[in-house]
């Protein structure tokens, strides 16, 4: 049971995932494979939360699904505790299913509409702890109370609950196996602001109690900053920057991270005036990321105000940032240095 | 395009499937052909004549090469060329089927859309009731009723096919009116239901709200924005209905004594006339596949998302 | 398992409310009883001619339904016919289910090459007209009722396989299946425990409908003489006999035909009833638009301000509640002013009534809704009381709208160019060519690159952000005075959101358009708005200038929203929340709607309705306004800074 010396719960090394392209006009034509994730490396230590941010389609969910072994990567390695996830042949060991759990974005679709809450939360208990009958109901009731619901909810159907309550049920199911790693795929994106913070507070309290590691996937950098110790920023299949949350958000090193931060609207009109000016200055072109991700070269090149020739030729090496993380951007790998820092070191856009 | 190419292996598979299926029949056609008191030797001779003494695979190979050359063989009992027989009988059956389809589409789509636009009100109720009656009425019974009331009682249409009356095109078509109606009834009912529900679904769409918010008149919203999208599932259903109509034609032909493919098929089944059964399956399937290809083109026209490029 | 029963009893109560289906079900029960007890219901034998060999005896005489051409009692044969109908239907459907459901489940779940091979086979069988296929099978296995229905069953099993597979395909993609897999459930458990119960409703419905089809098929094949044999009194066989004697008497064709007809209808309506009862909510269609009804201004009308472009007074919207007699009010007593060239934001959580409010302005309340207002004035013109066509000339002409889901808001069947041109053609009477030139200009204006080429593209060829630009171009085509933007950026990525906000801001400034911006994101409000109205549970609870409201909120709900929004700042401690959830409209109290979630609620808050009090350019709906100290955007409450 003892983890490796470094106490890493999740370790992803050089992970690449492709999806087969669709069929073409003629029956034998095949479109090129879609590069969903390219050369991604990540790790999370026990009790830590890593935030994975990026726009829709950037590959966040795909990484989460690969960690859960719902899809097989094309290359690279994923290790969860002692499990070599990419090495599983055939069926997945039951003990792995105990160790890794998941909460999805959609509070409506993620619970089986034809099962009562007691059976939904009780299913992992039955599979992993072999509990049945009253013992299982009892433990499921405990779990509901732990996530702020009540024991009498056991006999209700999911559609009888609000979105926030359904997310609590999903969390209860995930906690039932006492997992080492929880994959949270946009767990609060579908919720109203007031409910959003309720669920985040719950997740944080539970992490203190269980010291599970969280992989927190989201598109809202402000939410991620509040929840995570470390952040990895993805753009169009690649990780472009990693680092400690406050460091990244106060001193972004990658042009995309900077644009992302400048795009979070702030409710303080004065702050927002400055921020929207910054956003305009950083925006070039009108396209989002479209088409297949490039195999070589920086995926952000078409939208980057600092783009150079080299950017279209090779994907930049990871370079340490001042904030204590790493960034993949040619501004940081080449070019003259000024005052000990690369010229490209970008200004902060913090509040 | 790829549908057209896919149609070829489909026809081939269908024929193969039925070819081997029919071999299960324990009845010996040669014996049946020659009657109860034929000698074993003459039966064997007949078998050889029909090619039944060879191995199954050889028979299959022969049949296949013939089919590729559009040779559908000869009737085991009369020795007539199957292709000629089908050529004589196909026009009337096809007219019947497509006439019924036309009736079903026009009345079904019209009534269905009327019902959708008046959902929950009287016209909707009436269409719903009438269409559930239409779906429940066996087409051959409808044929009997129509023949009795409109031919025997009021004599508007002929009740029974007669070769003299159908010599002119007009007389021919006149004789097919009742069979077409009897056959098209249930398809019309099914299409009406589908049209109603797909129209109702389309009217809930965001782009209908957009069209209204643009200030378009309701008629334009319905004609330009709703109808075309509502037609997509109707087109799919029409393909299925064509297949059902071809099957149904067999029964309606039997009531009105129409000399079409149906009676040929029934007779062949009763006597295990293998060349006819095979040709019957192949030809009906061919028609269904062709219709579906046409419908696919219509589908692509209606739905730009599935267009190539 | 009381909840289990309650869900089940809800299903039955929905079903029992459907009278037509009940009658159908009742008929089927009687049919089964008749089939079982035929022998006790009639003194005759179905296959033996009556004693006196009465051929083609007319009905309602000695023999209830007369006799057929060989003198058999038709009534007796009809009763026995029910047996054959039910047995035949049961045989075909049973074969179809036993083969089709497991096969469809397995191939739909595991997919791969087995699926491809099986489906190739299924498609092959299904391509042949069902009756023809059945005839081919009958040719192979011989005629007779049992073999005929076997053939029909085989054909139906293909249909069931296909349906099951399609349903499994869809269900497999559901997140709850992933959830079960993550919980460690085996494939078998997922298939039988998670997927099958959820795809059962369509299968059950299809089974009853197929039963009806099987009854029809039995009659049809027996009619042709390749089904029931001469001594089996099936309804189809009776019709065949009747057909033989049709020249002498029409009557014998009537009873069996009616029997088949009624039985098929009974199965069909029973199936329809099940389908409706399974559906959680049945929805109605129609082009849903309701007029806005005029009401009294109320006791104390707020006078409209002079420079306002849009003034709304006492707008309320009600919906009938299914199964209840009383309507439920989802928007009540809304007053709202928007100045010329002003951006007014309407904020609030989901279900607070923002969209419905905006739609009422144009008379586009979704179908069963009933809107009423004392006044809706646009540029000095009263909109309440206008008929549909008068309002239509205002929609798209003087009021443009942008919706949340840009790709759903565009019709997939037409090029974007034609859709943007429509308001130009309808309101400004432009011809095709003239409109096209203007569309290119508009597309350029909203920043779509290469408009001359993109004008002929279809909506699905646009990304979300580009599609939203198209919708904006469409909304601005006739240079409206008011632009309603309902969550224009919620469906977009945050960097694209920035671009769309900039675009809307620039256009409203350049063109002098007033904007009603609906959103739940206070950051978006701060980016774009001049003034803000906060909505909670159908009511406006606070309005005022953006800077004032956000810096110094007067209503506890506004404060709650401001504090709960995650901002890009370092933090410590718990995130501030508003306890509880927005209750559904039928649970809104008469007193302050926010009372159950308000930290400052007192007894006085639960006495009666709280009026909206206006002070200068602001207003607030709270009896403790001014009394309690509330924190705005600059007081960093929950966050250490
Ligand atoms: N067609 C309808 N039938 C019945 N109730 C409806 C209908 N449309 C809306 N409602 C109800 O009206 C209330 C207000 O809805 P509305 O869509 O205006 O809210 P909203 O503030 O725009 O929410 P969101 O942020 O989710 O868009 C909701 O409680 C909703 O359930
Ligand atoms: S690598 Fe080049 S294109 Fe990519 S972000 Fe850095 S500067 Fe921009
Ligand atoms: S009226 Fe009372 S309950 Fe309502 S918001 Fe004000 S203080 Fe809270
Ligand atoms: Mg809304």
Please tell me about this protein's structure.
The complex is a heterotrimer of chains A (351), B (309) and C (641). Chain A is an alpha/beta fold and 351 residues long. Chain A has a domain at 251-351. Chain A is 32% helix and 21% strand. The longest helix of chain A has 18 residues, at 193-210. Chain A is globular and about 65 Å long. The termini of chain A are far apart. With 309 residues, chain B is mainly α. Chain B folds into 2 domains: 2-68, no CATH class; 82-306, MetI-like (MetI-like fold, Orthogonal Bundle), CATH 1.10.3720. Chain B has helices at 2-22, 29-34, 40-50, 56-68, 82-117, 122-136, 139-153, 169-203, 206-213, 218-256, 261-271, 274-302. Chain C is elongated and about 105 Å long. Mean pLDDT of chain C is 85; it is low at 1-5, 280-288 and 637-641. In chain C, 51% of the residues are buried. In chain C, α2 (19-41) crosses α3 and α14 runs parallel beside α17 (464-476). Chain C has helices at residues 2-17, 19-41, 74-110, 112-127, 130-141, 145-172, 175-182, 187-224, 235-244, 254-278, 354-361, 388-394, 406-409, 416-428, 432-445, 451-454, 464-476, 494-511, 522-528, 546-551, 556-564; strands at 292-294, 308-320, 327-339, 343-347, 370-373, 375-378, 381-382, 399-402, 482-486, 514-519, 531-536, 539-545, 613-615, 618-620. Chain C has 641 residues and is of the alpha/beta class. Chains in contact: A-B, A-C, B-C. The complex binds adenosine-5'-triphosphate, iron/sulfur cluster (2 copies) and magnesium ion. The site of one iron/sulfur cluster has 13 residues of chain C, from loops.
